[in-house]
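Run folding on both entries below.
>entry_1
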Amino acid sequence: MKSLRPLLSVCVRYGLIAGGLMVAFFVITYYAGHHPLMIAPYLDFRIVLLGMFVFFALREFRDRFNYGTLHFYQGMMGSYVVVLVACSLGSAGLLIFAALESDFVPDYITEMTAYLQTFSEEDIEAIGKEIFERNLSLLPATHSRMLAISYLGQGLLIGMFVSIIVSVILRKQPKTP
């Protein structure tokens, strides 16, 4: 249990920095003319951001506090702390930003409606016509809490995959004589 305190402190610190950058990128992207919630998932900056901060947090813990050793379970625990802190701060920042910027949610609704209307008949059939129409009709009722919960969920999902990859890459077992 002694090794958990430095792991948590390092990972919380990196998570707070990553969450702050997540909010900053979010705001910059919005004011640059691109709604941050309309970015394709495979182009989402959170993949790189979370990957970098998880990597550096685990490496710092391994090299400075754990004598060059990192077990997979330590990597996963630390990764989840970084991801949870960063994504929670990012979602809270989204809520605050949406409260301060009155056009944020209406802009999202307008852009998402226009995007959904570009779907071809084949795309709609693949999704299911009823599901597509239901989602389109529910879109005007979207509010900032729904967007923040979605943003948190997406970030946690991204972070889960990043955590596994980085934990495996940085894992180092103690050398036995």
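>entry_2
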Amino acid sequence: MKTEDFNYELPERLIAQTPLENRSASKLLVLDKRTGEISHHHFKDIINYLNVGDALVINDTKVLPARLIGIKEETGAVIELLLLKNIKDHIWECLAKPQKRLKIGTILSFGNGELKAEVIEIKEEGIVLAQLLFEGILIEILEHLGSMPLPPYIHEKLKEKDRYQTVYAKEYGSAAAPTAGLHFTEELLKEITDKGIKIVRITLHVGLGTFRPVNVEDVTKHKMHSEYYIVTKEATDILNEVKKNGKAIVAVGTTTVRTLETIRQKHDKFVPDSGETNIFIYPGFNFKAVDKLITNFHLPKSTLLMLVSALAGKDNIFKAYEEAVNNEYRFFSFGDAMFIK
């Protein structure tokens, strides 16, 4: 299976640069994975495709305002640091630009020294380990000094920070938003609950690995970065009950799929669990957890495009993407949505 098999042409004008004013006003392409049938709707219509007793599973991770612009103390050179993951004791895995200007022992200063970072290890692909030095509460410092780490294909400035958060975001820890969830409003979630659909929260902290390009020719040789997840007993009790009753588990986003499939692949049922997952889902994967998926439109040759192709069939997905382009759908993080049923 070749990475190039997952390439497609996308006009640049279709890459969404800003979120819609009304989250649930985005377009919704509905794809039947059994028949390949496609229909066009608006996102608020998603409620018509959710049935009483189904579980709608959401990832309640919250994006850290973790993009920091600072200077090297010894030279004043400008350095950008993106905090990815807290390894332990405020030692963070970070993406540094430009990494080549850093060496072990380099001290970076942010906000006139309100936050400092000492480089303690240089790794591959722009990654460094840095010891953060500060007084007070880190998240409060980041909210003051940091900005949202928007993907590189978004060139417009974000007017409101919360538009790169889901309305149900709760647990800080992500370097990127689980963007399928950006379409939901509080009102729509209430309508879904009132209809008798169970809303289940899980957490997976999204790292940059999910969005890294696949740089190998053979898909199966790609190595996923690991991401931390946690699923509670309250969540697994509901999910097991839904499965037992023959109802659907509807995942909101690929991060939710990866979390649920990690647990079912390990335990063959839903059990409370936490840890790191580097699960890589591509065509040929045997799904054990997820029945249906709400997702956005993904980058060419990405692991996310491979995941949705595994669930719905590559031919179905590429036909749907072609139709989305022809109908001027908006693509990627702030773009429109797809429902795979």
